[in-house]
Amino acid sequence: MLQTLWPTIGHLVTNIYNACLQQGYCPSAWRTAEVVMIPKPNKRDLTDPSAWRPISLLSCLGKGMERIIAKRMSYLAIKHKILHPNQAGALPQRSATDIAAALTHDVEQARRRRKQKKVVTLVTMDVEGAFDAILRNRLILQLRKQGWPDFLIRWLAMFLAHRLASVRFEDATAEALELLCGIPQGSPLSPILYLLATAALYMLPGATQRYGYADDTAMLFVGDTLGETTTQANAAIAAMEEWGRREGFAFDVKKTEVIHFANEKRSNLPPIQHQDRSANHPFREYKSF
Description:
alpha+beta, five-stranded mixed beta sheet, 10 strands, 38% helix
């Protein structure tokens, strides 16, 4: 309908968007969502709440403005190097294929280094909750530190405040309740806001290289021995856990995986520790190449 009427109402909608941005105003109707529950793929136990993905159905007018702001913020975040070069997901000119190619290149380069091939260890981790884990006040503080303009910060603060959601499942719809944290899945703005909220994670020291796609993050460690890369990995994981406690993020230990790239296969791999789990009891699978 909007596309059909755009020649007539386009200038009016543009005026509304500009006025909202200048005044830091986001109408309550744009902050009210009907949430539908979509089962996640490969989840058998549908009695577990984590087996469902909540998708927010939002105002089309509001999503139009969100999409414009998201595209502009994505462009500026890359231009001004606010995001790590290997951070991707909902960004122009950056895809999962690009991250996979960068990782493959870095592993091959390290293995070919000098006459003695280096040992490479890859650790992948998953941010628990992702969009739902965002603490809004911390996000606004992070955006201020990154240097985003005040008028945009004001609009985003109102966009995030006093959000209402009613859950619809099959033919039943629950009463609308206020959401106290998180950003809406289904909003065009949420992916770039999430990347900006976690940008500092990719600036932490300790890893030879870091990679990220949405809520999946990976660290690469290069050394002369497995013991050396394991020590690096344990220190980096501890630093990430500390950052997470400080910023309100947690990492799902069940999804942490480790791959070693080395000349020899070993049955007694040195332990890589994540919370109370170690490589003596593999998270999933360990490989040596």
